[in-house]
Inverse folding.
């Protein structure tokens, strides 16, 4: 018995020592103390979209690239990976239901009531299913314990649709503002943590500007972390947007990479103006945002989705959320 107590004391002391060594709100949580992942307890993805549903009831591919007249709320019921040798090793969408076309923003807010929300906003060339997969991978990767949501706009999911996608993203600003406003005004709601990628960061920044302009500083109180991964935004436009956000710009963390090939192409299309996600760390930090320079982690051809493909970069998202709590 004494030996068992002694071993337990050693384990506890070791855990406390490791916790002290990790220290600070930038460290990852100890696995012994981490809350259970939200999707494992409730395998459901909350969806707000400006895409048209496919069929009634919805059927694969669930949502198209056509623009819906009004924002739609839906719930994607998920099937977790199987432990069996013959089952799927990936998450999948079993069905999409609870489709709401009227008061979609309020329906989404009620579904997330009382919990923190991880809201993912995808970038260019994404279908609903690829965006949903990225959302699930992100939530599972950081072991997010609240509700997981996706705001998906009508990308054409085509390599040659860059300009059309940009217009579709900007067309969706009002819907995203309505969603964030409904979330912020819902009593007993949790924090809203936003992760946006690529072209989705432009949609996010413009919407946050609108939200603050219409609702003032109080409108941003429920917004927690805002992580802009590989932002495909003109650096001058980015700087102007941050100016309009004022002190709320401090909520933003930028994941940048100077060797992001996709942003290099985007820069050429924009007449050579550098994109915010490919700017030097010093230039970004001078604008008042946190910066995680992922250049050293990029060993692939594109290096545009490191926050999903690289575990170290993914921890930047987790730490940003922990700080915001």
């Amino acid at each position: 018995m004494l030996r068992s107590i002694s071993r337990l004391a050693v384990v506890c002391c070791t855990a406390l020592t490791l916790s002290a060594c990790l220290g600070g709100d930038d460290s990852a949580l100890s696995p012994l103390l981490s809350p259970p992942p939200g999707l494992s307890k409730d395998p459901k993805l909350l969806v707000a979209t400006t895409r048209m549903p496919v069929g009634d009831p919805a059927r694969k591919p669930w949502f198209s690239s056509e623009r819906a007249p009004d924002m739609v709320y839906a719930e994607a019921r998920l099937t977790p990976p199987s432990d069996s040798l013959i089952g799927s090793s990936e998450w999948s969408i079993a069905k999409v239901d609870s489709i709401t076309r009227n008061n979609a923003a309020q329906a989404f807010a009620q579904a997330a009531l009382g919990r923190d929300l991880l809201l993912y906003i995808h970038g260019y060339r994404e279908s609903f299913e690829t965006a949903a997969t990225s959302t699930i991978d992100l939530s599972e990767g950081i072991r997010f314990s609240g509700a997981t949501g996706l705001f998906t706009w009508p990308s054409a999911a085509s390599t040659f649709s860059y300009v059309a996608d940009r217009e579709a993203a900007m067309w969706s600003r009002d819907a995203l503002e309505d969603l964030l406003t409904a979330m912020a005004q819902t009593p007993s709601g949790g924090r809203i943590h936003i992760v946006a990628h690529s072209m989705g960061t432009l949609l996010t920044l413009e919407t946050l500007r609108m939200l603050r302009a219409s609702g003032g500083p109080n409108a941003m109180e429920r917004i927690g972390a805002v992580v802009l991964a590989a932002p495909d935004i003109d650096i001058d436009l980015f700087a102007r947007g941050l100016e309009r956000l004022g002190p709320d710009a401090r909520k933003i963390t930028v994941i940048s990479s100077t060797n992001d090939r996709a942003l290099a192409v985007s820069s050429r299309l924009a007449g050579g103006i550098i994109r915010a996600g490919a700017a030097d760390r010093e230039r970004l930090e001078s604008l008042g945002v946190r910066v995680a320079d992922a250049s050293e982690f990029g060993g692939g051809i594109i290096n545009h989705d490191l926050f999903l493909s690289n575990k170290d970069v993914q921890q930047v998202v987790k730490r940003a959320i922990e700080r915001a709590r």
Observations:
- Confidence is low (pLDDT under 50) at residues 1-35.
- The chain is about 40% helix and 20% strand.
- Residues 20 and 223 are 29 Å apart (CA to CA).
- The first helix runs from residue 2 to 22.
